[in-house]
Amino acid sequence: MNQIAIIGPTASGKSALAIELALTCNASIFSIDSLSIYREIDIASAKPSALERQGVVHYGIDLLSPDEPFNVTTLFDYYLASLEACRSQGKNLILVGGSSFYLKSMLTGLSSLPPITQETRLHAQMMLRDLSQAYDLLYRIDPRYMSSITPSDRYRIEKMLLLYLQSGMTPTEWFALHPSRPVADPMPIFNLAIEREVLRSRIKLRTEMMFQNGLIDEVCRLESRYGRAPQSMQAIGIVEVFDYLDGLTCIEQTIHSVFTHTAQLAKRQETFNAHQFEQTFKASGTQIFEEAKRALLRDD
Q1: 128 C-beta neighbours (distance < 10 Å), count
Q2: What's the CATH number where 135 sits?
Q3: Number of domains making up the chain
Q4: What is the pTM assigned to this prediction?
Q5: Is 258 found in the same domain as 188?
Q6: Does one domain contain both 167 and 189?
């Protein structure tokens, strides 16, 4: 079997391209998306419907309840299971999605981290009240590692602060002793290119369609069943509707907020994809289809 990955910003057409390739190349699809993995979150995640999937098997979607925790190691387990299924069925596999951090982690691996005590978490939270000060501390003790983290990246700063406070080691020291192990073998990566204004138009249209298709009703159902605390309830398209339900925004402002935040996400995705993968084939959908087809149908 062969496998490839298709990356690109949200609303660029990755899912449709992957489905077309899967139908042509005897392949299944593994979704690399932090929201499509949840059941019941259909409109907000923009996951392809059963009709749009055209019978192509999609792994990595509709696996968790919205109140179940999800992290990259969970995705690793689902990926390995889907890989084994494809091998037993003689299928190729196409990895596709906007959460390229997960693909990067699958290809490079993740180092194990020490168990974090509640005391350490509380200490870190106090220090993180001044994010710049926490970043400066970490940069002073480990400029080599922290140079790859921006001062505004709260998630990674918190992660490294917890590591340092718990282990007493700098990130560089810890990761040298606990090297990462890749989960996925190297594979061709295709980066779907799209003009900025065309992408913004697609995001605008998709946002409007989400509301027309019942996004507000979906969020109301999710809130009534799971509340607002779960990780999945913090996603773009959901938090903006909460503001609308709380009377903080009107419907026009809500739609604009979802559009704006989605466009900002797309820009971050493009930046990440440009800098985090050593070799990608970046081109239009038509060009990628032909190159990806060759990669999937090659006979090693």
Answers
A1: 16
A2: 1.10.20
A3: 2
A4: 0.82
A5: yes
A6: no
Name the residue with tokens 């026009």: 252
Crossing angle of helices 118-127 and 154-167, in 10° steps, is: 130
The verdict on 290 and 187 lying in the same domain is: yes
The CA–CA distances, whole Å, from 258 to 4, 66, 173 equal 31, 20, 41
CA atoms within 13 A on the CB side of 256: 5
Q: Quick one: tokens of 292?
A: 């990806």
- Which amino acid makes up residue 90? G
- Do 209 and 79 fall within a single domain? yes
- pLDDT digit string, tens, across residues 219-262: 999 999 999 999 899 999 999 999 999 999 999 999 999 999 99
3 state DSSP class of 27: strand
Decide: 96 and 32 in contact? Cβ < 8 Å.
Answer: yes
φ, ψ of residue 78 to 5 degrees: the values are -65, -40
Residues across the chain: 300
- Asked if 7 and 270 count as a contact pair (C-beta separation under 8 A), the reply is no
